Amino acid sequence: MRFTLSLIFGLTVVTILPALALPSASTNSAYETVKSVTDELLVKLVEVQPLYENDKEKFFQEIDVSLAPFIDFGGFSRGVMAKYYRRASSEQKSQFAVRFRISLIRTYSKALAEFDNQEIIVVQNNRPLKDPGKARVSLEVHRKDGSIYPIEYSLVWIDGKWMLRNIVISGINIGLQFRSQFAASMQQYKNDIDKVIENWNVDV
Amino acid sequence: MQMRSIEIIVGAFMLAGIISLAVLAIRVSGFNVGAETNTYSLYARFDNIGGLVRRSKVSIGGVVIGRVAEIRLDQDTYTALVRMEIDRDVQTISTDSTATILTDGLLGGKYIGISIGAEEAFLVNGDEITDTQSAIVLEELIGRFLLKKF
User: Fold this and answer.
1) Strand runs labelled E in chain B
2) Which one of A97, A143, A164, B73 is CB 3.0 to 4.6 Å from A77, fit for a cystine?
3) For position A109, which CATH number holds?
4) pTM of structure
């Protein structure tokens, strides 16, 4: 009797465990995600960097392929729209997410095009956040002149993987800058969300 | 007898004058006796708080909704942990809001500005605003500018 009970208990636990899929030891796996994406990107960059001179579009596409699966464009663009998010229709929300994705990938690509074999160190032992579904991973870009500029990624756990939600570069909160830009744009176009989206700058 | 009563009246006026001045001074400084009970606490971490002090204001869109209650140095991460007391009637600060350290005017003191996000969930007592922007320190900016020159 006892044996059957413990067998049933054991089987139940084993079948439930995968369904939980919570980010346990979450900051370690967030670190690993960032490290592997960074390493893969740097390897790819060696091949595609020369493309930037001749075929910018192709270069952007290559970077998009590498980075897009790692970035939560929906959540990121939602944070940029902030208090205007509720006023937008679902079509406007997705239109903005698309434009935002283009501008973010292009900005990222431009920075990568100028990347000159600097050393990128992904910091281990990042402080775990109270919310297990969120994580912070720090990176350091070591410039040739010895200076270090710090980058901090804010990640969220979505559908079984860590995705990028915000970046802080050298102490400047990029998501916040975009948010201010969106708000200023709303002022400029008199709260016409369609105009704001249309005029969201995607050129670098 | 008359001198005495005149003296007493003068004394009373002096006292009233001094008390009024004291009340005025307290009111101007924004010190609110007993208002602490109508608040809840929110935390935020910054790499650099600039000249932020206890009782610096916390505002949303320029409207003061609370004060900085406590500032501590977290010796594990060397970040500043700030506790803010927010008015209880401000309940709708979304969980993805951002706390920024801003300067009042050109040369004024530092304060915390909260920029509201888009999440439907709101922060409650004891929660932390995880998305922050530290103070822009002039010397660091100059340093960065100088470095670029090389």
Assistant:
1) 39-46, 57-60, 63-74, 79-87, 98-103, 110-115, 128-129, 131-133
2) A97
3) 3.10.450.710
4) 0.77
